[in-house]
Every structure is written in C-alpha cells, then in structure tokens.
Amino acid sequence: MAETHAPATVPFEERLPRPPMVLNNRSMSWITNLIAGIPEQKTPLWWYITIAITGSIAAFGVFCILYLLFTGVGVWGNNIPVGWAWDITNFVFWIGIGHAGTLISAILFLCRQKWRTSINRASEAMTLFAVICAAIYPGIHVGRVWMVWFMAPVPNPNWIWPNFRSPLLWDVFAVSTYFTVSVLFWFLGLVPDLATMRDRARSKVGKFFYGLLALGWRGGNRQWRHYEMAYLILAGLSTPLVLSVHSTVSFDFATSLIPGWHTTIFPPYFVAGAIFGGFAMVLTLMLPARSIYKLHDVFTWNHIDVMCKIILLTGSIVGYAYTMEFFVAFYGANPFERFAFINRYFGPYWWAAWSMFTCNVVIPQLFWVRAFRRNLITVFFVCMCVNAGMWYERFVIIAVSLTRDFLPSSWGMYYPTWVDVMTFAGTFGIFTTFFLIFIRFFPMIAMSEVKTVLPEADPHYHPPAIGGTESIKEAHV
Amino acid sequence: MTAAAARRKTLGVIAEFPSATTLYQAAERVRDKGYRFWDVHSPFPIHGMNKAMGLGKSPLGYIIFCGGLTGFLTAASLEFIPSSFLYPLIVHGKPVNFFTVPAFFPVMFELTVLFSAFTAFFGVFVMNRLPRLHHPIFDYEQFRRVTDDAFFLIIEASDPRFSDTVTREFLEEIGGKDVTLLYEHD
What we know:
The complex is a heterodimer of chains A (477) and B (186). Chain A is mostly helical.
C-alpha cells in the first residue's frame, strides 16, 4: 500500500491537479471572440427556420389562450372533482424548471463552484423564460381574467382585502418576487458583458443598444468592488428565495386536506424535484447550443459530468421521496391516504405514475457509470426522460390525487382537450422562442466570469515553464 | 494636435499593463506612493485588488440591510393593517390578532428579499455613479480593449500628488506600457 502514496513533499494539487475550466489554454481574447462573436455573426439559416417553427407554435398557444378567455374555462378538460389539472401541472412544471438557473447562479456561487461560470448566464435566461411560461397559467386559469387584480393587496371600493393566510396568496408573492429578483440578478451579471458587446460593436444599432444597456460600465476596480458585493448579496438572497419558491408552491397542496396532497414531505421533495428537472432542461438547451457554436473548450465534458452527477443526486432524492411517501401512506394508518397511493400506482392512471417513476428514478441511475455521463446520446436521452418524468410527477400529484378523494360518489376521470394540449405546446413555443432570441442577441456565456477562472486571472499566477504542468493538465482531460 | 491638447484640461494619465499580475503589483506601488484618485480597469474583478488598492470592504451590505428591513416592515404593515384592523375576516377559524403571525411569514420573507434585491441592484449603480453613458476615458481608443483582455491603471489629474511629468515617469517605472495623458472634452 505504501508505494501508492506519493511523497509527502509533493503538494496535493500536483499529485491530482484540478481539471482546467477552460481547455487548451485559451486566452482571454479567444474567449471574447468566441462568445461575443455569436451575436455578431450573420444570422444563420437554422435560426430563422427554428424560430419560424417555435414562433408559430407560440402564436398558436396565444390563440388557445385567447380562445379560453373569450369562451371560458369549459374549453379545458377541467371538471369537478378535477378542478386543477393541466393548468396547475404546467405551472408547477415550468416554475420548477426555473429553479436550476437560480441554483447555478446563486447556490453554486456561494459554494465557490467555479464551473458554474460557463453555464450560469444561459441557465438564468432559461429561468426567466420558464417563469414567464409558468406565470401565464395562474393568470388564465381563474377564468375571469379581468378579476386577476384581486390577488394584489390594493384598496378597492368593495373594501375587500386578500386573505394573507392563504397559500395561494403566498404563491403570488413568491413567484412575482422570484421573477423580479431573477431579472435583477441576470441583468447585473450581464452588464460587464454588454460593455464588451458595446466596445466591439461596429453597427450603429449595435453601438446604440449595447451602449444603452451597458450603462457606461468601465470595469474599474472601484466599480467591481461594489459590483462583487452586490453580486454576492444577491446570490445570498436568491439562495433562500429559490428554496422558498417551490416550498410555497408545494404549500398550495400540502396545506389542503386532499389525500396525496396533505403531506409534510412536500417542500423538500418539490425543491429537489425542481432542481432535478431544471438541470435536465439546462442540458437539453445547452447541449445543442454547445455543438452548434463549438463551445467545447468553455463548456467542457467536465461541466456535463458534474451536471449529470447533480441530476443523479437530486433524482435519487426524488426517488427517496416517492418511496417514503408510499411507506408513510402504508404506515400512517390513514385509510384515505393509503387508498390515494394504491390508486396512484395501481388505479386508472397507473401508467402516469409508472412513467414518472421510470423516467425520474430508474433511468437517471445510468449516470452512476462514467461512460454514460460522457456520451452525448445517453446524456440527452436521460435529460429528455427527466423532462417528461417531471411533468408526469406534477400530473400524478395534482390531477390524479383529485380524481379520487374521500367520497366514491364524487370520483371522476380527467381527459384533456385539444386546447389543453395546444396551450401546453404553446408555452414550449414561447419558451424556445425567447431562448432563441436570447442566444441571438446576448452573450450566452458570462465572458467576464469565465475569464476569472483562467489561471492567469489570479494575480499571484506565475506562467509555468514550457512543457511543465501543461502536459499533466492535457492528460487529465 | 499638441497645441489643441495643451488648451484642454488634463483628465489624468493612463498606463497599460500586460497581465492581472503586473496590474496587481503596480496597484500596490501606486497605493504605497500615496495617490488617492486613481483606479485600475480590468475585464473581470481581480481577486484581492481591493487590498492592493487600499480599499476596504464595500459598504453596500449595510445599505441593503436597510432595504431589507424596509421590506420586512412593509410586509408586516401590509398584512396586519388590513387583516387585523381594516377588514378582520376570520378564515379557517384562525385568529386575526398577533397570533396569526406564522401564516404571515412567507409574505414577510418574500418582501424582505424583494426590497433587498432592489436595493442591491440600484445601490450598486448609485455607488458606481452609473448609468453614465459617456465618460472622457472612452475617447482613448485603446481603452476599448478593457472589456476584452487589457489592463489599465489611471491616475486622475485631480489627485493632489498628480503631476504631468512625475506621475508619467512613475507609471513607466512600475512597468506601465503606452503611458498617455488623457484630456477632458473641450
């Protein structure tokens, strides 16, 4: 055993060097040219084709929403007892996806996970677009959309105030705060990169818009000093915020009495599921972008590998929650709760529950194997399964629990209509259209942050002798 | 050019440095020399530069704390005034007095975070005197590269120790390249 130990004089870093964040010893200007070059290049043909498709889907989704508003909620498959169906399922699905972006930008920042710099910008953008998609549903599912302002605590002639003890109102505050803070955090991170775009812009329009948005950023250390403090504090604020948002969403269910909803495990279970589903969506969006724009040196296999490990971890937490829920239903001596869980897995919607369990718990176990974490096809396949599985999870919890509650006389099935389906497809159209616009006009990787993880960004860095540590780093990749 | 330049007011002197390391060492020299109105410009925040420049911690945190406190008090008033006084409605048999406070925590938390985040966002720009879309140093063509891969050190003419000649020589001595005098607008 003794020979496996390196001599104690060799520092740990040299025995097992950290994998570099940016491969092939790329320089700062190489990074700038790569990332700022994407919005500067001529709009590629694939972009026009893709946005034509996603834009059409989004437009059809908007049509479905208008049809709903002009006709009534009857165009959906919602009924009594299933008063919350695809609308709230999709709301929870989208808001959950947003959580990965905030986790990457805030929690990983506080944990000093420097690999986050390659993916945080795009993930935060994804958060914003996902929350926009989510926010559509609570607005339109109330039926009388012109009454939506009743959710806001404003003085009104009816002298009626919202009930501040209601989880639904907490949700209004949680989601709107989450969206606002995410926008502020995202834009603050974007300012130095917009200054890069401003300084490189050649067209008049580019100079004007990037110049306006960059707010005159000059990159002085007297500016960076406050900037870094604000960034740190926003990360510190976003961390409890992101954990609270999905907890509050889960309170919508957990504080009610419906069997299958009324459980204390919901907040952590929902948060883990949100991060799980969100990471899968980040990879779903970023893997094609990485291939199209040749980001391999910045968004490396090491990044994908650690993201897969997070998917594996959170997927296993979700799997634990599914099993524990089932166990508590069995052990808890509440016949209604026990029935709800037997019905969930063996009732008329058994296929939804088993799809959920397979996609979320069984398939991500592939990521225990390193080869599967470093293969584009398996990573993409698992992410697609997780995307689908997380939607099924929300459908199973929300709609299936409602189909069979306490009284068999009030049981009923739920069937979606074409408006349900097309509205959901429409939110995907809105989401992808926004994302395409984002990658076309904004730097999708945080240049100023990626530069900080280069070895020469450290003020105490000494360039290594040629052929020295370089070969070790290459070998480790 | 030089005659026109002579008539204009000097803004300061700028020097370029080849790397973050050299900029850091130069900043320590400038700090030790006792200059007060100067700054280093870099494409990214350099770790430890506040110390090298002799700057303390940003006071932004205290301002944000006040913002967060405002948010908390706003939420508390927003919830208690209508629910306990203006329209005390008993829902789910829950009390309307102080003992209903656990149900008010989520909104208190959200508004504390919201107000703190707004304070952080606007605070950082107020402290940095931004937005200021144009600044005389943007006239220096080389300065465009500061958002790419260039490192600059500027000593302003308003500094009491500033001198057109001595400061220039000092910057050259500590390793500055392309040491140039900057002028304000006419």
